[in-house]
Write a structure and sequence with these properties.
Layout lengths: L1 E3 L1 H4 L5 H13 L2 H4 L3 E3 L24 H10 L3 E6 L16 H11 L3 E5 L12 H15 L4 E5 L6 H4 L7 E3 L8 H8 L14 E3 L12 H13 L5 E2 L8 H7 L2 H7 L8 E6 L2 E7 L5 E7 L5 E6 L11 E4 L4 E4 L4 E6 L4 E6 L3
Parallel strand pairs: 1-2, 1-8, 2-3, 3-4, 4-5, 5-6, 6-7
Antiparallel strand pairs: 9-10, 10-11, 11-16, 12-15, 13-14, 13-16
The chain binds alpha-D-galactopyranose.
Alpha-D-galactopyranose (GLA) binds next to loops.
């Protein structure tokens, strides 16, 4: 869990913004809710390497080590970005031919997380060579002796979920880039069902960063985004301006009960258990025999949805469920429960026990 600069700031990210975000991660309660990684995406890199071939920063980032010290002083961790190609997606310096050297530099700076983005490598290597290319950086990171989270970003090519853990990957993107709109978010989120078996503690499917709070979706749509990512056991990397959050955005990103579903220690990714027209019901098994149930209405009109517990794999009808958005317990009686779901909205529940 953390934050990443790309979705909102793109090439405008700089030292001042990252420090401001780090401050706000603390004051807003994001850090204490679990969002600890502050990740600088593309466009921090200098135009050329120094005389010894070391990667440099550009003038937006005068001193990366000092920035890491600052972020660490706030009880947070710092992430960075590079590419196995000579250039990054945005045309900045990549790590090609300098993999070990860059891993060492990142470790010396105090970096805790690296997103390694394929883009600039695709003209050099075939998809079949991808695994070895990612392994090279994975080994280089291990060699530094510093624990660094390794995020593979190659858009889900070549069944990365099958080999991501072997190259040291802690998370791997499963799709192309998300955009801040309903079509993009749902195209990604609802297409993750078949990847469920590959999610494990320490090794996660990554359906890309959150757009919550960036303005392109309604609050109901952002609740769908948060609930779905939680059911998918997905990394929660906020992509908004933490320094200026509306109360609605805060309520979504800081919903502790939704976060608890996402972070459940069993690490089992949820699956689609029922579907009819625009309505999909997804269930995630949680530790201690609990389950999270997401009732999603992908359609443009409100719907009353009736859930039959046996259809979702429940052996016993629950007597009580917890509504994670309304934050209230609901007493039940019988084998079914009917609940209104707004357009593009979600009913998100926790059911304890078998
Ligand atoms: C690719 C990645 C994005 C972002 C940009 C930066 O598109 O998928 O997440 O890192 O590159 O250039």
């Amino acid at each position: 869990m953390g934050w990443n600069s790309w979705n909102l700031f793109r090439g405008r990210v700089n030292d001042e913004i990252v420090r401001g975000i780090a401050d706000a991660m603390v004051t807003s309660g994001m850090r204490d809710a679990g969002y600890v990684y502050v990740n600088i995406d593309d466009t921090w890199e200098g135009e050329s390497r120094d005389a010894n071939g070391n990667i440099t920063t550009n003038n937006k980032f005068p001193n990366m080590r000092a920035l890491a010290d600052y972020v660490h002083s706030k009880g947070l961790k710092l992430g960075i970005y590079s590419s196995p190609g000579p250039d990054t997606c945005a045309g900045y310096e990549g790590s090609y031919g300098h993999e070990e050297q860059d891993a060492r530099t990142f470790a010396e700076w105090g970096i805790d997380y690296i997103k390694y983005d394929w883009c600039g490598a695709r003209t050099l290597y075939s998809d079949e060579e991808m695994q070895a290319v990612y392994q090279k950086m994975g080994e280089a990171l291990l060699k530094t002796g510093r624990p660094i989270v390794y995020s593979l970003c190659q858009y889900g090519r070549n069944d990365v979920w099958k080999w991501g853990p072997d190259v040291g990957g802690n998370l791997w993107r499963t799709t192309g880039d998300i955009s801040d709109n309903w079509a993009s978010m749902t195209r990604i989120g609802f297409s993750q069902n078949d990847l469920a078996p590959y999610a494990k503690p320490g090794h996660w499917n990554d359906p890309d960063m959150l757009e919550i709070g960036n303005g392109g979706m309604t609050n109901d749509e952002y609740k769908t985004h948060m609930s779905l990512w939680a059911i998918l056991a997905a990394p929660l990397l906020a992509g908004n301006d933490i320094r200026n959050m509306t109360p609605e955005t805060k309520a979504i990103l800081l919903n502790r009960e939704a976060i608890a579903v996402d972070q459940d220690k069993s690490g089992i990714q949820g699956k689609r258990m029922w579907q009819s027209g625009d309505v999909e019901i997804w269930v995630r098994e949680l530790s201690g025999g609990a389950r999270a149930v997401g009732i999603f209405n992908r359609g443009p009109v409100a719907k009353d949805v009736t859930v039959r517990w046996s259809d979702l794999g429940f052996k016993k009808d629950p007597k009580r469920i917890r509504d994670l958005w309304l934050k209230q317990d609901i007493k039940l009686n019988g084998s079914e429960h009917t609940t209104p779901i707004p357009p593009h909205g979600v009913g998100f529940f926790r059911v304890n026990g078998k």
